[in-house]
Design brief:
The complex is a heterodimer. By secondary structure, chain A is mainly α. Chain A is built from twelve helices and one strand. The longest helix of chain A has 28 residues. Chain B folds into two domains: about 30 residues; about 90 residues, 3-Layer(aba) Sandwich (Glutaredoxin), CATH 3.40.30.10. Helices cover about 45% and strands about 20% of the residues of chain B. In chain B, strand 4 and strand 5 form a beta hairpin. The C terminus of chain B is likely disordered. Classes of the chains: A mainly alpha, B alpha+beta. At the A-B interface, helix 3, helix 8, helix 11, strand 1 and helix 12 of A face helix 1, strand 1, helix 3 and strand 3 of B.
């Protein structure tokens, strides 16, 4: 069995029983549900499609879920001393990082799948005369952009987790980088940069979700998320190699 | 932290930035028909292909308006369609009456009401209201037309 697969399985099993996994997933589904209902109500009479509402309700909370899920990946290993054992094993840093990253992505994919139950099954069943079920292509396009965004948040969280022994510190740092920073930049543009403000429709991360959910695909956006994910994973493996060298 | 590690991460960051910058510079975009959202029609594409020069579209709407997101998406779709047929260069400006008081004042002086699109090409101006843009109003079912 390949090293990545072994680490992925180990981490997924650890996630299954972890308090730090069940609670964030439940909290994510709760806040997502609340946002979904509020977005649905606020856009009554609008032309927003159901898959867009799903995407726009889930996207703002993904950085939080990513930060909490990834905080323990390496910080816990460092706190318990398991990192020495892991790094002394004949496993490449790249495999270690990818295995842990993919395990967090698996949990996020399952969570997004659960969040899809309401717009795809429950809502059309309850309001069939009003609402046609969303098409598979529309759902797939929205899921693609949500997973791309989640991969960036998870990769950043995984990298930050290497830097800390304390899980809470790793989570807070991830939240600042993935959630607070983009919002702060957008708020700063609105407040102080009128030249840029007139060319920005609204929060770019949400614009990406809306564009993909309505069939407007941009290679630039895909490249942005893929490149940043690869960069964070690369930086993570380099930091891990540094830890291995230090002994 | 070792200098070589820091250098590797910095170079990785630079490479990442350059790749993203190149992707934004080439700006490859394509529109696929998903759900009930319609694409730009063939007739509109023909009109855009025949139109040259620059068209400035000012979206004079509150960003909190329920129709703001669909309208901004419609404009982006139109810009993409124009690029794909090498038509007019569509420049989109968003004027929020809450944030851009000076620009909103200028538009009001031009008798442009709120929640409208102002299309400008050279000296020609066209005002399109929200009601003219939306085909039908019903919760989550309507589609916009171009």
């Amino acid at each position: 069995m390949k090293a990545i697969q072994v680490i992925w399985l180990r981490e997924v099993r650890a996630f299954q029983g972890a308090f730090s996994c069940g609670v964030p997933v439940a909290a994510f589904l709760a806040v997502y549900g609340w946002t979904f209902v509020m977005t649905l109500r606020n856009n009554e009479g609008s032309v927003l499609q159901i898959q867009s509402i799903w995407g726009l309700s889930a996207a703002p909370w993904l950085p939080l879920l990513g930060a909490v899920l990834t905080m323990r990946l390496f910080a816990e290993e460092r706190a318990t001393g398991m990192i020495d054992l892991l790094l002394s094993a004949p496993i490449r840093e790249r495999d270690l990082v990818l295995g842990k990253f993919l395990s967090a992505m698996t949990v996020i994919a399952v969570t997004l799948g659960l969040s899809l139950l309401v717009p795809v099954l429950l809502l059309p069943a309850l309001s069939a005369p009003l609402l046609a079920p969303a098409g598979a292509a529309a759902i797939a396009a929205t899921a693609l952009i949500l997973l791309l965004q989640a991969s960036t948040w998870c990769a950043a969280g995984t990298m930050i987790s290497v830097l800390f022994r304390n899980q809470a510190a790793a989570a807070v740092s991830s939240l600042i980088v993935c959630s607070a920073l983009p919002v702060a930049v957008y708020a700063a543009i609105l407040a102080w940069l009128p030249g840029v403000r007139t060319s920005v429709a609204w929060m770019p991360l949400l614009v990406h979700v809306y564009d993909f959910s309505t069939g407007l695909f941009m290679t630039s956006v895909i490249t942005l998320y893929v490149a940043t994910t690869l960069f964070f994973l690369f930086a993570c493996s380099k930091l891990l190699a540094l830890l291995r060298l230090r002994g | 932290m070792q200098i070589s590690t820091l250098l590797a991460i910095a170079l990785g960051g630079v490479l990442c930035f350059l790749v993203v910058a190149l992707a934004y510079h080439t700006a490859l975009t394509w529109e696929v028909n998903v759900g009930k959202v319609t694409q730009v029609s063939a007739r509109t594409r023909d009109i855009l292909a025949d139109t040259q020069g620059s068209i400035r579209i000012t979206c004079f709407m509150d960003r909190r308006h329920p129709m703001f997101r669909p309208v901004s998406r419609l404009l982006r779709g139109l810009r993409q369609a124009s690029r794909s047929v090498a038509g007019a260069d569509i420049v989109i400006l968003y004027v929020d009456p809450r944030w851009d008081l000076a620009r909103a004042g200028q538009l009001a002086a031009l008798e442009v009401p709120e929640n409208t699109l102002l299309l400008e090409r050279q000296r020609r101006r066209l005002i399109v209201t929200l009601d003219e843009m939306v085909a039908q109003r019903s919760p989550l079912r309507t589609c916009y037309f171009h």
